[in-house]
């Protein structure tokens, strides 16, 4: 007689459903914000059969920081391949997949790759012997050809991110909302959140209900801070900080031909970023304008206003002298105030530089989820964040390692308050 012994090399963990959606609760959600984070979360939930309503204070997708005319998705690298680096790789992968699914290549996005000029030697590749195999498709030392195309000297320290891409964020937000068929309610500024029975209600400044659902996802950028402060006046449950940024831009057609030929054929980042060939905003939302160049962004902390400032164009031009020195003087005429245009937005960050995703405090506010604090990485992380929230609510396998998901958990701030 044979005897079998149960001795697995590892044991599976019980699948855990989010405490905010008990079995039998309607699959209905209210999302605040129609930018990158809100639209990504709405898309992920709707794809799973949820009934989703989106509220936004603006009149079109990406009215806030997601209105950036052009931005990049590229991995973060670090010598020890730290948590942020691993999270960002998962985010870039999710964003590129979503872009391939929904966006028009060459008009809304392009998988060009991104050159990172390692100014002052920052952000070197991991020294692990496993990196050349595990990370070769992601990031490698830049080739001499890449350096030449960017006008950088042969000794410049730079990385090539082969899976990097430029994206027009507003187009991604718009495409996600259109593709999933959710109901979007514009010009709805939420002033207060209240829980009534098993539902959350979003109220305007006059106390009128704008929407209600058992599951609420707050993805309203910096406005999230005020809503959370109203829920807990004594202790701010989410320490979001404003981060104003301004980019400078102009049409490629306004540059002399000799200068236009010097521009790199791919985006370059490392001390701000320089992007060329991306359509400028057109007169109609779905109509792209002529190809342009984009440089920025500035980083101004503790500034809660998204104002355009002439001096920030000068600051952006100064960045170019470090990022792409060979272009600094040739591009100087393009920064004349009658030639350059700009865009400013208000991003928000958290003290540990990692977004807050998921339930904020299931004990005090069941059903309340957060998707905020993306900082300058909204393009790279918002799709991943939306998928994470949807997977948690559905009890699915997570879109990234559980250990990394824990570092994104919005509940980490409530836990720190209890420990204080």
UniProtKB/TrEMBL annotation:
Any Pfam family hit: DAO
Enzyme's top EC category: transferase
Name this polypeptide is given: FAD-dependent 5-carboxymethylaminomethyl-2-thiouridine(34) oxidoreductase MnmC
Organism from which the protein derives: Limnohabitans radicicola
Region ranges (Disordered): 1-26
Entry EC number(s): 2.1.1.61
Example of a GO biological process term: tRNA processing
This protein's UniProt keywords: Cytoplasm, FAD, Flavoprotein, Methyltransferase, Multifunctional enzyme, Oxidoreductase, S-adenosyl-L-methionine, Transferase, tRNA processing
InterPro entries: FAD-dep_OxRdtase, FAD/NAD-bd_sf, tRNA_S-uridine_synth_MnmC_C
GO molecular function: oxidoreductase activity, acting on the CH-NH group of donors; tRNA (5-methylaminomethyl-2-thiouridylate)(34)-methyltransferase activity
FAD dependent oxidoreductase domain sequence ranges: 30-391
One of the record's GO cellular component terms: cytoplasm
């Amino acid at each position: 007689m044979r005897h079998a012994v149960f001795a697995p090399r590892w044991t599976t963990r019980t699948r855990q459903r989010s405490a905010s959606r008990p079995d039998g609760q309607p699959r209905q959600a209210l999302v605040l914000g129609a930018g990158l984070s809100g639209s990504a979360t709405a898309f992920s939930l709707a794809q799973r059969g949820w009934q989703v309503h989106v509220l936004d204070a603006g009149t079109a997708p990406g009215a806030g920081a997601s209105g950036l005319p052009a931005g990049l998705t590229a991995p973060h690298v670090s010598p020890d391949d730290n948590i942020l680096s691993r999270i960002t790789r998962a985010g870039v992968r999710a964003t590129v997949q979503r872009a391939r699914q929904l966006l028009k290549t060459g008009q809304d996005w392009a998988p060009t790759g991104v050159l990172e000029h390692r100014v002052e030697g920052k952000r070197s590749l991991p020294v692990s012997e496993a990196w050349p195999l595990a990370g070769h498709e992601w990031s490698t030392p830049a080739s001499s050809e890449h350096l030449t195309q960017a006008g950088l000297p042969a000794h410049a320290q730079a990385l090539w991110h082969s899976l990097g891409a430029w994206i027009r964020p507003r187009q991604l937000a718009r495409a996600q909302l259109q593709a999933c068929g959710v109901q979007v309610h514009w010009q709805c500024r939420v002033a207060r959140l209240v829980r009534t029975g098993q539902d959350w209600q979003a109220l305007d400044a006059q106390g009128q209900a704008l929407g209600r659902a058992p599951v609420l996802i707050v993805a309203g950028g910096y406005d999230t801070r005020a809503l959370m402060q109203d829920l807990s006046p004594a202790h701010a449950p989410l320490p979001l900080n404003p981060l104003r940024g301004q980019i400078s831009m102009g049409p490629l057609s306004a540059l002399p031909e000799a200068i236009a030929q010097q521009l790199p054929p791919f985006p370059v980042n490392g001390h701000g970023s320089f992007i060329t060939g991306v359509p400028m905003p057109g007169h109609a939302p779905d109509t792209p304008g002529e190809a342009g160049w984009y440089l920025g962004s500035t980083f101004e902390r503790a500034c809660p206003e998204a104002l355009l400032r002439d001096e920030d164009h000068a600051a952006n031009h100064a960045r170019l002298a470090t990022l792409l020195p060979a272009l600094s003087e040739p591009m100087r005429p393009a920064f004349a105030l009658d030639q350059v245009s700009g865009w400013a937005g208000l991003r928000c960050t958290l003290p540990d530089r990692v977004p807050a995703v998921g339930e904020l405090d299931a004990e005090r506010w069941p059903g309340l989820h957060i998707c905020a604090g993306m900082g300058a990485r909204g393009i790279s992380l918002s799709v991943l964040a939306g998928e994470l929230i949807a997977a948690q609510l559905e009890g699915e396998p997570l879109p990234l390692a559980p250990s990394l998901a824990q570092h994104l958990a919005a509940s980490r701030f409530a836990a720190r308050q209890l420990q204080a």
